[in-house]
Amino acid sequence: MTDKALSIDHVLKDRGKTRVLDDITLSLASGQRVALLGHNGAGKSTLIKSILGLTPINGGTIRIGEATPGSAQARRETAYLPEAVSFHPALTGREQLTLFAKLSGAKADVPGLLERVGLSDALDRRIGAYSKGMRQRLGLAQVLLGQPKVALLDEPTSGLDPISRQDLYAIIDELAAQGTAVLIASHALTEVEARTDLIAIMRKGQMVADDTLNNLSALAGLPIRLKVRASVNADALAAELGGSRINGASVELLCSPADKMEALRRIAGMGDAVADVEMTPPNLEDLYRHYAQEELK
Ligand SMILES: Nc1ncnc2c1ncn2[C@@H]1O[C@H](COP(=O)(O)OP(=O)(O)OP(=O)(O)O)[C@@H](O)[C@H]1O
Ligand SMILES: [Mg+2]
What we know:
CATH topology of the largest domain: Rossmann fold
Shape: elongated
Largest sheet: 6 strands, mixed
Strand content: 25-35%
Bound molecules: adenosine-5'-triphosphate, magnesium ion
Structural class: alpha/beta
Order of helices and strands: EEEHEHEHHHEHEHEEHEHEEHEH
Strand order of the largest sheet: 5-6-7-3-8-9
Helix content: 25-40%
Distance between the termini: 28 Å
Number of domains: 2
């Protein structure tokens, strides 16, 4: 990976006697969408705040491109959607975004940006009268100002309805397509599973996994589930394949990735006795359970 938008190297952060970031290393290439997962208190928001230079670190280095966190260049190149967005309630969406654009020095098409996040109708309404999801959308419009190198989104879909979530991921995809590296801290596993390139999982301040979903599956060696539906007799099928009956007509087998083809050959060998086979690889929830809960070495 040559084109690193964000490099985090062996970062340490202590709060009192507690080490809340413990030797964190992670890098994001331009255009990459990375999910940052972990239980409550794992250190996700702390890591994001360190990247922003909002909280000092006790060791290691962080670079946004070549810039150090908190420097003028880093601030220009980094966009942030905080866990709890708050704006001035007396300003309108248009006023608030115009203000942000002035502060960031970016030339911005404010009505265009507000339209892109679905706030055209609320352009001139006071933010105090926005719903939580509308404030979240306004926060996202702010992220879109000035083509950031890195966008840090802390639980961006919390409080959004299902359609708004889809819209948000569409905007994340656009950001990534224009070359922004996007780090998304989230608890919404099913969503990020489909919409990110890499998965990073933190546990108690440590990075316990950082790879593609496929590679993490292979590393974890979690079983693949095969559901075999019998044409006539599921008992005979269960006896032959050694799986367990899951309903009147089907049998379920668990097999390791290495044994998958052998299992499929055995099933195919049973000819007409088998009506259908469904194969389910481990999903992100299975992987999350594996990585976020296993004992630290
Ligand atoms: N302002 C603070 N002062 C002291 N300790 C803090 C502060 N903010 C966070 N912590 C501690 O740092 C650790 C990491 O917290 P952090 O907010 O980074 O977790 P998180 O992974 O974002 O969790 P969540 O999923 O709940 O948002 C926790 O032990 C937390 O108690
Ligand atoms: Mg957090």
